[in-house]
Structures are given as structure tokens and as C-alpha cells.
Amino acid sequence: MTCSACHQGLPTDARFCPACGTPAAPGAERPVPAAAPVLPLPEDKRKPVTVLFCDMVGSTALSGALDPETLRTVTLRWFGLMSAEIEARGGTPEKFIGDAVMAVFGVPHVHEDDARRALAAALGIREALERFNAELEQSLGLRIGVRIGVNTGQVVAGSDATARQALVSGETVNVAARLEQNAGPGEILIGPQTLSAAGPTVSVEEAGPLALKGKADRVPAYRLLALGADDPELLRRFDVAFVGRRAELARLAEEAEAARRGARLLHLAGEAGTGKTRLVREWRSRVSGSGRPVHGAGRCRDYGDHGSLAPLAEAVRTILAEAPRSADGHQDDAALGVLAAGLLDDGTPNVPLEEMCAALAAVLARTARTCRPVLLLDDWHWAPPLLVRAVELLHSRLGEAPVLIVCVGRPGGAAPPATAIPLRLEGLDREESARLAAELTGAPDAPVAARLLDRAEGNPLYLEQLLLPADDTPALPGDELPPTLQALLGARIGALNPAERFVLDIACVVGREFDPVELARLAATAPGTTAPPDGEEPPTVVPVLQRLRRRRLVEPVGTGPRGPYRFAGGLVQEVAYASLSKRAKAERHEQASRLPSVTAAGDAAVGGHLERACRLRAALGLVDDRTALLRARAATALGRAGAQAVARSDLTWADSLLGRSVELAEPDAPGAVTALRRLGEVRVALGRTEEGAALLRRVVTEGAAPVEAAHARLALAVQDPGAALASVARAVLPVFEAAGDRVGQARARLRLGQQRQSTGRHQEADRELVRALDQAVAAGAEPERAAALGAVGVSLWRGPEPVAAAIHRCRALLTAHGSGRPTVGVTLNCPLAVLLALDDRPGEAHAALGEAARLAAELAYAEAGVFLPVFRATVTALAGRRAEALGLLAGADAEAERLGAGGMRVAIALEAGRLLLDEGRVPEAAERLLPAARADALARADTVDLAGLRARLAAADGRGEEALAAADEAVATAALSDSPLLRATAALDRARVLASLGAPARAGAEARRAEEHFSDKGHLPGVRAARTLPVGLVAVQARTTTTEKAS
């Protein structure tokens, strides 16, 4: 058997379809049509609802025991009782079949407390059954039982109550039906989202995770025991410190003081969750002074069986019960009699309203002789007109009686009393929100995510609910809103008229900010509307936006009458968007991609709309030519946007854009290989080396165009320490030149320049790097510009340019290229810091490194954790703080190992080995240098460094001949370089070896040679190091010099 509406297979004993809720009537089966997938109707909406399934237990036995006519009478009475309990709480009995019912709370209108209403209805049904069973037992000698399941979540809801298909469908319906089937007689099982949405006053016991048919994972279930009052005092958290609201508290205190001189009526308005109840509670706790205040509170409700004046009655009863009696013991018995017969009895006037208000004013005025009455009427937005009029009359009758009336509610709904003084409650500011979040989490020192504060937008309830998933409530997928917020905001949106809702639905697809003219054009192209003739403006939507503004759902940006609008809150947009059907979203995203504001925002915005459109259509099963075209357009736009992000050095954004482009693009689509190659390069740059290299190998092996293959080959050569990088760069450079690919030329010349750096030929490298820089600038390629400049900076540091001139040129390059380019700031500030340290300017050096670190943090550079500590260690060692430098290098090495940066680990090992030797820690130095000694191909500078250090190790171990050979090798290899630093270091290492081997004269000569090289560069710490060799050597040098002068 299959469902007659959605054609899903049904269990043999099913009463309802578990997917859509349609009655599983035998014989109603019809064949599944072989047509295209059926889309939701345009008016279908996705909305949060609570579904209740109720089934009679033992109905088969009952039908055998009763005459059919009697059975029908019993069943109809039972249906009537269930319907009354459901409808009394705002629910809709959607399906009746046999002796079972399916009800929905949230259709046609969402209420913020739909989950509580459903639970109240479930308990009401059970109580009604007890009363009904008493009758049945007396008249027919039998009893019946029920089992109930309740679940909350998103459904697709239709608005046509006469349609033959279900009004709601979705997984929420399925789970509710399964919960009912698993409940025992008399039990009410509820799902976790229902428990969360209904609030903390629900009393349950765990029914254990249940294995529900059709669900892969077990579903937590709870057995409903009772439902506590929905008093805000119970539903809100008051266990955290009160934050902010100084001005509002002061204003309430002023009004309370003014009420001593005559009755005051105040209307406190604020959106749901802004903290009205908490503010009033805090104010009440702070009230002091002569004449003790007595507070009476009442709440307005939008459903129930109470009289229109019940909230006023609740407040008055509390005041009369708690107020001290007057000294003479006299009470206005006549006035109390009027109230007792109506207002205090059932919340009705009973007598003409004017007479009742006069009696109430008299009673409150007499009560005010011994205390200060304060009437608090909460949820005023649900106040019926009779209550509004009664409060207005009461205020006018009180005159000079010291009574304060405070009406607390949301904007919209019931109008404030005409004579009320308005007080508006807005959201918390950013700092206050962060403090409240810290209080709510119980971690005052823990940072709160900026995105969470952004989403909450100063609303304390939003903030509390958004923090819940990190606390003790069921985890929500992705960025899904907690059910409490979905219902709260959904109720506001659901109360809009069709025109307002239509405009809001279109706007939420466009984005947080939107243009009224563009919105009107989208509205005119919606299904069922007629587009205006070419050249004519569509009808304006501004009047509708102005109504939405009054409802505080949108707000204008700027002051122009036709200027842009935006959503008053991001969560409003989220909930409005979530309520749209996938079909509607797909259509509107496609239309939005052509809006002038979207195209002006660039390829990322266009591609984002197109991507959503094609993904939504695919989710509906629409794998057709239109979806394929949207997919191709989205991939192309996202690929272009990714390239632009790469050019602007925004690698994190580029990774997202290019990843989405590659996922959408067909392998043979134009631009697909380019996007794949760029994604590989970006992931390598972000430290995801293996992922990136795998993508680049795909480009090389899958027959890509020559230019793309050349880019991939070059990028892979950079990653492979064993590759002949320079030969690859020379091979691909003609390909780039022939294609006019400036980015490729910049990259190839950059690698050639770096190859010359690795051989120590810095002047040649500089010329190649300047050519690479010119190509990068012409192409607008920021990463290549930054890399070329950084390499130039390294040659300025290590090459023959004197320190003073090198600092001047480095700063000139920063001035010319660094403004607005954080990557350039990183790559130039690091070598600049070392140059400043060479010039004995450690403060400026650390300032340059600090700037580089700040910029690198903004860019999310994966390798910043390696190269920044290495540069900092170099600067620190030059200042003589070797132990600190060694600590920095250890941290850098651990990060380099994590990232797989083998080349950096060799450089770190050489630097650390030198520092350990300078500290006299010879065995540790030998151990630390092992990774460098095992490396296959070292740069010339590293070869010189390693040979000099090996010489010192051999000398320390008494292996003189080996030491001298290694030292000579270092000096000879350094001579092939134009780097004075490399030559000076090799000479100083040889001087140390000669000194330790007892050849002070030769050692002195070598030290003076090192000093000359250091001096040529302007390396002041090096000059001092060459002049201040170990004491024994200095003494020998001094004697030798004296002897030479004497002779």
C-alpha cells in the first residue's frame, strides 16, 4: 500500500502516512505517475510547527463490543472533545480517520508558544478522556485509552485547507507519528525539539532513545508528566547578573516617584526578548523609600477561557491580598462588592465599564493610604480592546491617588492606552552583550564569538538561546536557529498580511540590505504577476516597506524616500528565508543574480545567488537543462571571484570560492581546470599541502592546456625539495611569454631569482626579482608582488648592499607597494627587521616584526607560525639573547613539522645548531644539526653554514684535520657567493677552529677578514663578534700585534 498523496510506501497497519500525514485509507491507493517531480505550490511555506498525533487504544475490541450506531456516537463525541481541546489552544485538527487525529500547532498562523500549546492540548485531551471515561463507564460499562506523540520542527505547509493533499509534510510529521506509535496507553511522548521549545517548566522523564521506523539514528524521547505555568518569572533566566539599562531604570524610578503626586500610566515597549520582564523585575527589587510599594501583576494572553479583564483582575487581587489594612479598618464595601461580582470573579465588568472603573479607582485610592500600589500588566500587545479602554478609564478616575500602572508589551498588537507615557526599550550595546554572554556561559574571561554577538544584535533572549547549543540542549545542525527563536520570529512574520509577507519574502532572498526599486522589479516577475512593459517602472513597494518599518521588521538606510532598506535584524531575515519553499528560493535567487546591485557587487555575489538556485533545484530533483545552465554560470562566476580573491591575497575567501566553483563545474567546462589549479595553489599556500599537491597533479596528468599545465608544474616543483625548480621555471617561462601570461612570467622569474639567491648570487637575483615584480604589478597579482618584494628584501639582507642603503631601499619599497597590501607588509617587514637589528636598532626591529605579525594574523597565513618566530629568533640572537632565540626556534620547528615544511626545518636546525655551539652546548648542537646533515640538496648558504658548524664540532671533538678541511670548504664555497654575510660567517667559523687548534696568528688573520666582511655590510653585531673572540685568542692577538709593531 502507498500513500495516495505522496506515494510513499506504507506499513500495513499505518493509519497515517509517516511522511506527509495523509490518512492511510484502504483502497485509496493509486499508481505513481511517471511525470516529472511535483514542485510545491507557490503559496507553500516552510515553517516551524508542532505536530500532535493521538490514537485511541483498543478501538478494535471496542468495535466488536458496541453496536455500530453506538460506536459512531462514542467516536464522534470523542472527536468533539479532542477538537475542543486542540482548538481552544490555537491548534488545527488536520486529519481524522477511524479513531485517530493529527493536529498541527502553527498552521495557518505560527505562535511563539506553539510547543506549549500542543503540550497543553495533549494534557487536556488526557483529562477530557478521564471525564468521558466516567460517563462511558456509568452508561456502557467500558473505558477507552489514548496514546499521544508530539514533535516540533520545520515542515512544508500549504495554505489551501480544501486541497486533497496534506496541509503539512516533512520529517517532523513522521517523527510525531512514530512517537505516538511507541507510546503506551495513557502516555504522551515528546521529541527533544518540543522539550526545548516548550521551556523549562515542562516536567518530563526520559523514555530513552527510541529506534523509530524510518530513522537511521535513535531519537531521544521524553514522557510528558506535567506542564508548569508560563509565567515569565519561570521561563526566563534570572540567575545571572543584570547588565546595562541604567537609563531605563532611572526613568522607571522617576515615574514611580512622580506617581506619589498623582496616578501615572506608563507603556514600556520593546521587541520580544529585549528584557522587558527582567528590567521590571530589577526595578521592583530596587524600589525603596517611605510608603512600601505593593506590586500586582497580570498577563494578557491571546487564547484561553478567561474574561477580557482577567489580567487586571490578577493584578488587583494580588494588591488587595498583600496591602496592609488601614488603621481604622474601614473598607469601601460597596465598591468591593461591585468588583467581587464581576472583575474579581471572572475578569468581566459585570456592570457598565465606567461604573466598574470608578469602583476600582475607589478601592485602589483607599489602598494607597497604606502602601503604593503598582499594577503591572504584561504582554500588553495581546490586550483586548475592552482592557485597553478599562485601563484608560481607571487612570482618569484615579486622579491624584498615588498609583502607578505599567503596561509592558511589544510594538504592534494592542494600542497603548491613550494617556500612557511611552518608554522604549532597545537592545544592549556590543560591550553589554559580551558581558551578558560571559554571565550566561559562566565564563567571564572566555571570549565570545563575534558572529554570535552579531546574530543576537543586542537582544538578550536571542543571545541566551543562541548560546544554548553549547550548554545542555540538543545540538542543532549548522547555523540552525533554536526552535524558541524560530517560533518567536516566525509568529511576527506569520502575522503579516499577504502583501507585506510577499515583499518580505522577496527581500530576504536579496540580502540584509535591498533597494525598493529592485524589489519592485522582482515582485513584478514573480509567478502570478504581470511584468510591466519595457521602459515602465513597476508599481512601488515603498508603502508596504513603510508598514513593515512600523512593525520594526525593516528600516531605511539613509534619509531618502526611495533609498535602500535593510532588515531590522539579521535573525528576521534568517527566519523569513527559512520559511520559503525551496522552489521559491530557487526562482528568486536566479532572478536576484541579475539585479544591478548584485552584478555591481561582483562575481562572488552573482555566483552565490546562482549557486543557491542550482543547488535548490537539484535538491528538488530537477536535474534538467535549466539546472545545468545555472550550475555552469555559478561555477564560472565563482571561479572568477576566486581568482580575484587570490589576486587580492585573500586566500581564505579564495579557498571557499574556488572550492565551490570546482565542486559545481563539469570537468570539461571552460575555466574548470583553471579553477582546479588555482584551488591547488591556494590550499598549498594555506598549509593544506597534500590536498593542494593532489589537485595540482590532476591538472598535470589530465591533459590540461599548456599554460595551466605549466602553472601546475611550477607549483609542484616548489613543493618538491628534490625537484629541479630552476630548470622547471626556465622550461615554463617561454610558455607564459608566448601566451602573454604575466602572472606566469612573474612566478617563473620569481623562482629563477630565488634559485640565484640559493647559490648566493644576490645581485643577479635582485635583477631577476625586479623583473618578476614588474610583471606582477602589471598583472595586478598581489601574491606574486608580495613574494617578489619579500625575496628582494632577503637579498637586501644577505646580499652586498650595505645595511644603511638596504634599509633605505626596503622602506622605499614598503612606501611604494605596502599601502593597503598586508601581504607586502608581512614579506618586507621581516627582512627589514633583521636589517635594523644588524644596525643595532633592536626596538625598531621588533616593531617591524610586530607589524608583520599583526598583518599575518589578518591574512590567516598558515606558515606565519614558522617564519615569524624564525625572524624573531634571528633578531633576538643578534641582541645576544641566545636562550630566548632557541625557544623561538623550537616552536617554529614544531609548527614546520606539522605543516610539512621540510626546507624551513633545515634552516631552523642550522640556526639552532649555531646558537647551541655559541652557548658551548656541543653535544646538543651535534644532535640538532642532524636534519641538516641528512638533507639531500642544500642551498649554497646552507652548505657554507653546515660546513662551518661541522668544522667547529670536529675541532671541539679533537679531530683537527677534519675540522680544518671543513672550515676551508666553507670559506671556499662562500667565496663563490657575493654575500658578505656568508663570507664573514665562514671566516669567523674558520678563525674559531684555528684558535681551538692552537694557531692564534692564523686565527687572528681570519677574524680580521671576517671583520672586514661584516664591516663592508654594516653588520655591527658581527663586527663586535669578530673583534671579541675568546680571551686566550685576544691575548695572543694583542701580543702578536705588539711584536709586529716593534719589529
Automatic annotation (TrEMBL):
The keyword Cell membrane does not apply. SUPFAM superfamilies: Nucleotide cyclase, P-loop containing nucleoside triphosphate hydrolases. Pfam families: AAA_16, Guanylate_cyc. The keyword Nucleotide-binding applies. Residues 50-180 form the Guanylate cyclase domain. Gene3D superfamilies: Nucleotide cyclase, Tetratricopeptide repeat domain. GO terms for biological process: cyclic nucleotide biosynthetic process; intracellular signal transduction. GO terms for molecular function: adenylate cyclase activity; ATP binding. GO terms for cellular component: cytoplasm. PROSITE patterns: GUANYLATE_CYCLASE_2. This is AAA family ATPase. It comes from Streptomyces odorifer.
